[in-house]
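Quick one:
INPUT:
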């Protein structure tokens, strides 16, 4: 299990679905170690703190294993070509991770990295900004149906994170799974 990419963005105003909104979904990979604080990663912002950010949603992790799915459905929706790779961070994640997905993550699990410790807190729920980032509104429904939601993480021990960092999964109480909580919150 490894961090493939660390991604950050500043909030900016964009026109989405005919309205002007603040968003920081378009995260971009950064080189080198990035400071991890209780409120999130250095250089990163969340535009709507009612649904993103805060202590329990300080960092958003997304499995790289789902990227081929999104590449395929974007091509089917004709918003990209079949061979257009998705840039890491496109889904709004701070950490693009390999070797872990929602089926293996439970609320309270800890991700122990060389420079910090993060705790799985809850699934990410898709919004219209996700649909805009993906290039088609149906992406929101596809995230709901697929269960490919990723996980929000709280910062237990601040420090640093960098691409290439190994992740050790330290199981928590294993009472509430991320995928099950995601489906329950969406009423599925």
């Amino acid at each position: 299990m490894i961090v493939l990419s660390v991604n950050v963005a500043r909030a900016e105003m964009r026109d989405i679905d005919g309205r002007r909104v603040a968003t920081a979904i378009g995260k971009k990979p950064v080189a080198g170690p990035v400071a991890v604080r209780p409120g999130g990663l250095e250089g990163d912002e969340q535009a709507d703190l009612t649904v993103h950010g805060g202590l329990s949603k300080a960092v958003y992790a997304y499995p790289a294993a789902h990227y081929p799915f999104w590449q395929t459905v974007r091509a089917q929706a004709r918003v990209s070509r079949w061979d257009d790779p998705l840039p890491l961070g496109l889904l709004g994640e701070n950490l693009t991770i390999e070797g872990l997905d929602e089926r293996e993550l439970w609320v309270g699990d800890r991700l122990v990295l060389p420079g910090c410790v993060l705790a799985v807190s809850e699934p990410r729920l898709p919004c219209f900004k996700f649909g805009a980032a993906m290039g088609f509104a149906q992406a929101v429904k596809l995230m709901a149906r697929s269960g490919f939601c990723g996980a929000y993480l709280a910062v237990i021990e601040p420090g640093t994170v960098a691409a290439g960092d190994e992740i050790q999964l330290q199981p928590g109480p294993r009472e509430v799974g991320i995928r099950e909580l995601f489906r329950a919150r969406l009423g599925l």
